[in-house]
Write a structure and sequence with these properties.
By secondary structure, the chain is an alpha+beta fold. The protein has two helices and eight strands; from the N terminus they run βββαββββαβ.
Length: 133
């Protein structure tokens, strides 16, 4: 879906269409290097990586240590954030799915969220839209 972005240049208004997507993926920490390489291999090197903790429907895990059981409610995860043009977004999503999924898929492999981005601005140059990516 395309959204119009209002851009002000020298006091004049200029409307242009932009189609950018923000891809947020929550994945297992041990999959980060593989996913990063896969994203780079499809031609997209820009990525933000943040360490995170959380749980999904499984609400943590029960582990044993020295004969004692204890519950770990928040599991270590990694959040990847990528803003890309709409034409690149599906290729990036498929690369993440292919490399983040464990053998056969398992609970805790993660989630991917894709949302529209209205505008992007490169602070250094003031470029806007996809050219700022």
């Amino acid at each position: 879906m395309s959204q119009a972005v209002e851009e002000y240049v020298s006091g004049q208004s200029k409307t242009r269409s932009t189609t950018m997507k923000k891809i947020e993926a929550i994945i297992r920490p041990e999959k980060v290097d593989d996913v990063r390489k896969a994203i780079e291999s499809v031609g997209y090197p820009g990525i933000t990586i943040t360490e995170a903790q959380g749980h999904g429907k499984q609400k943590g895990v029960v582990q044993q240590w020295r004969g004692e059981s204890y519950r770990v409610e928040f599991l270590p995860k990694v959040k990847l954030e990528i803003v890309a043009g709409e034409s690149d977004s599906e290729r990036i999503v498929q690369a993440i799915i292919k490399t983040a999924r464990t053998n056969g898929g398992a609970v805790g492999d993660g989630k991917i969220f894709v949302s529209d981005v209205k505008d992007a601005i490169r602070i250094r140059t003031g470029e806007r839209g996809e050219s700022a990516l």
